[in-house]
Amino acid sequence: MTYHFLNIYAPTTPSVDFWDSICNLVSALPQGAVILGGDMNAVACPAVDRSGRQASTVTPTLGRQDKLFARFLRQVGLIDVWRVLYPSVKDYSFYSAPHGTYSRIDLFLVNGLAMSNVIRAEINSISWSDHADIALYLHTPKLAASWSWRLNSSLLRDPEVVSQLRTLSIQYFQDNPPGETSLSTIWAAHKAVMRGHLIKIATHKKRTKLHSLVTLQQSLRRLEMSHKSSPSPELLSELLRTRSSLKRLLLDDVAKQLLWSRRMFFEKANKLDTLLARSLKPRSKFSSISAVKTVKDVLVNSPQEICAAFTAYYSDLYNHSPHHDPADKSHLDAISSFLDSLSLPHLEDSHISGLSAPILEEEVNCAISALGGTKALGPDGFSGGYYKVLRPELVPFLTSVFNDCAEGGSLHPDLLVANIALIPKEGRDPAAVESYRPISLINFDAKIFAKVLANRLSPLLQVLVHPDQVGFVPNRQLFDNTRRNADLIWWLSSRATPSLILSLDAEKAFDRVEWPFLFSTLSRLGLPEFYVNMVRALYSGMSAQVRVPGSSPIRFPICNGTRQGCPLSPLLFLLSLEPLLAAIRDHPEIRGVRVRGDSFTVSAYADDILLTLTDPISSLSHLGPVLSDFGEIAGFRINYTKSCAMPLYMSHTDTASIESGFGFRLAPSELSYLGILLTANPTALYSKNFTTMVHQIKYDLEHWCDKPISWIGRIHSVKMNILPRILFLFQTLPLLLSQRDLAGLQQAIDSFIWQNKRHRVARRILYRPKTRGGLGLPNLYLYYCAAQLTQVVAWHSSASTRRWVALETAFMFPDRPDLYVWLPRASRPILRTTCPSILTSLRLFDLARTKFELMGVPSPLTPLLRNREFPPGLRASDFGGLAGVGLLRYRDLYHNGRLITFSELQERGVLSPFSFFRFLQIRHFATAQMLEKVATAPLSALEHVFMADGPLKGLISRLYLLLSSSPGQWGPLTYCDKWEVDLCDPLPGDEWEDIWEQTSRSSICVTHQEQSYKTLLRWYVTPVSLYRMGVTSSDFCWRDCGEKGTYIHMWWDCPVVRRFWSLVHAEFQKIFHRQLPMDPWAFLLSRPLSVLSRPEQLLFNRLALAVRRALAASWHQSILPSWSVVTAKIVDACLMDELTAKVRDTMSSFSKTWSLWEEYSSAPNCNLNLN
């Protein structure tokens, strides 16, 4: 049934137009149940719906508004629910104090279809205002939802409750030692005991809280009924007193809720956080699942039927091959035969020892810390906070449960159940059950176990997983595959090679993994039985239930698949897919692209598989059986209709046969892969990807312009939303861009920051890093350079770990990219490739070296070989022996400040006698060119990044900071010069760095923090600046002191302001119990005072910020704020900091910071209202 809900407020005076418009609205509604509620300001029957005055005996009659309302009811056929249910009862929803009368003007009106589902209607007490709240209860059989318990996180912030839980858990484990009952059963029972105790505590708290409320509501209802039937002044007086008491109680509760709500906005508004992200994100069109089709193609719309449809679908999906029994020997033999035919890696003993060691409590603690767990709880309702708060009591026993699994023990079935949350796939039919992505919300203890296992396995993935696969493998990036495939398409295009780029769409890849195949693969890869047993325990006895609002979930078993939502699942999926990729890669008839003897056939990011095939028809004919054989034993299935093929230089006949003979959909000019469009024409990459992205970003910026986001909040918006999107393209596509290409987008960002108004801060300061005195607005061109330089850094990694590095090394042969790039441009031999990716990286590296002046030329890292300055080295093969012992670069020539000797090189490895001659040539070159100074020079910060031993975290951010901090990048900071002139006190650079740091930490509230930046950057308009702009006719101070209103005058030098600051200074000395200098640097710009400790300095900054905020609020006024106004802002900031500390569990830090203020404000002689 379709329900139509309408809410109206009728005008207090008669209005024919209003009632006619509502009549037309109701009449135009589609068929269904109509429920209209609201304040009608009219009654249907005055005799029973309106009381007379206390002293009057005249029966109320229909007024003009009443008549219009009665006409409306007749025209639309709506029914007054309450009157139908209670035809002879007199009760009212509104009390008019001026007239001393009651009336029933707040109504629910329904049509006949809705009336059949009505259970009851109520008129409650008049508590909040002069209206009572009314309620309508409907019988809705569709919404018979089961109740699911969830831990109330606020209980974990109550020290008394936490103490009870600690005591109870200790006592429980003491009373239930391991014995006949399995450890997992004891653990499961522990959760039941703790859940019961938590429900008991929550129920007690709720009853205590509601007792006074319920008592007052009952008393109020009794008095109202008495007053309605027999009104008297005494009854009215008592009724008003009771209503006032109830209102105060409700207001206290609402005030607390509003306070906590305000705290959240205080901390998170305009910050790089969820609130800002949600405000920028367009509202999703998907709200709930209203109807789906069953397997019989029948459309159902009740929640229980929807739940049943999904349950049937996923039950079939997760049990799709019941004949693949783990004990089926013939099937296991088929798996073994397939795996034995492949060249798969095998773990060494050093790796196995780490996997087969017992789980330590430290590992469990590490997993708990790494997992969030405050949202998306599993079926047991316990959050991550529960495990974090009770960590000392729970971790020892939980560790024992996990280790028991390694010895063949099992986990309790309740631990392995999961709720399936449904996420709609974009652009898919919402009525199709397969159009949703199932995310498993598993219990937190199961998630801890999975995380421990994932932490052990993750470091070994680089050994077990071929570099062709880059998804979920540490230190492998998505751009490894996108750059590789862009290179391959360029290579094929430059040679006009008939070839095919094939994107394979795997159908429900994670969900279809067969467990017998998975565990056979784990054993074949050399994972020890100890570890495999733990994985097997996590996967044995799994079950799930689909959660649909308004329905009772139906549990079903799971016999295949890896759960999306489990920390271990992506890793297991990679290992289960590796045999397929190996089979394709090693098949002699599936021909990839060969470059200098190396074949590039398959690249994958998890289940996103892309094949680059030459001799396409023959390769496809052999690919089909490989996919079919693998699918038969592993459950893998290709969706041929969604897989896509892009032919390159193929004949029309061959192209047609791909679609007709193999079933792949053709994409003649472009192919979507990992979020980008790969184009058959390499020159079209820019227009198909970058241009489209820029148009979308400009559109978004334009639509965000009117959103209520603060100035710094807009900078954060760019960092959080725009920058990741544009960085994705910068990383994944080897495009050569100039500043001009990005100028239009950068201008759109500027307009968004200033809301298309006048700039208040110079652009060079806006884009300067915060640590260098700016605001850190992303400079897109510098981020582009940083993103491209990360790939130059990747050139220095082993070619065996990154396939695209091996490919580009082959393109550049006989040169090596990690050496060639360090040569000065004049010393480089002619490059033997025109690959756009390589040329782009070289140009960006040269730009960093010349324009940004981040490296010397020549550099200590300049190579000796293939260097035109050293002609003998152009034949690098002659120096292979010396290169093999590490003599590659200028800096390798010197050791401990002296030229290295041949004997020292011989200690590193075996060298032929001919190598001594080559060594003499190199030494002569070094001496003749006087390379000692260059070779022994310390490496620059950028050179250290390139030569780092391992992968660096936050590499783009590091490079961006270096680029944005390069000499001459931003010019002088004029606001610093102006402050130094105003205060007649030049500061050294390190003191300005202290000021910038303190400004960025002045408050946890971004809105308050903005004031610190506005003061620092001289944002505020003064009489002098307005006079210069021609806005005013005088440049004198607004406070009537007779002096010119310069910036420093308005903030500090004005006599009126000086008296204000003197008062503040005196109170600050009382707060800190010591003499404080009257230092404008400290009060205005938060420069640290040497007499204050770190917590005291933090408090000083908070207090000074409140003073400046009060002063800024009266900027244009002649009267300055009183001390009471300042203290009100301080008290509010203190309260918000305290509530935030409670949420973050940092009360000790809060106490250290605010203790002096609390001591001051609570002192008997403290006067917060001092003027």
Automatic annotation (TrEMBL):
Family annotation (InterPro entries): DNA/RNA_pol_sf, Endo/exonu/phosph_ase_sf, RT_dom
CDD domains, sorted: RT_nLTR_like
Reverse transcriptase domain span: 404-678
One Pfam family matching this protein: RVT_1
Alphabetical list of Gene3D superfamilies matching this protein: Endonuclease/exonuclease/phosphatase
Name under which the protein is recorded: Reverse transcriptase domain-containing protein
Species in which this protein is naturally found: Leptobrachium leishanense
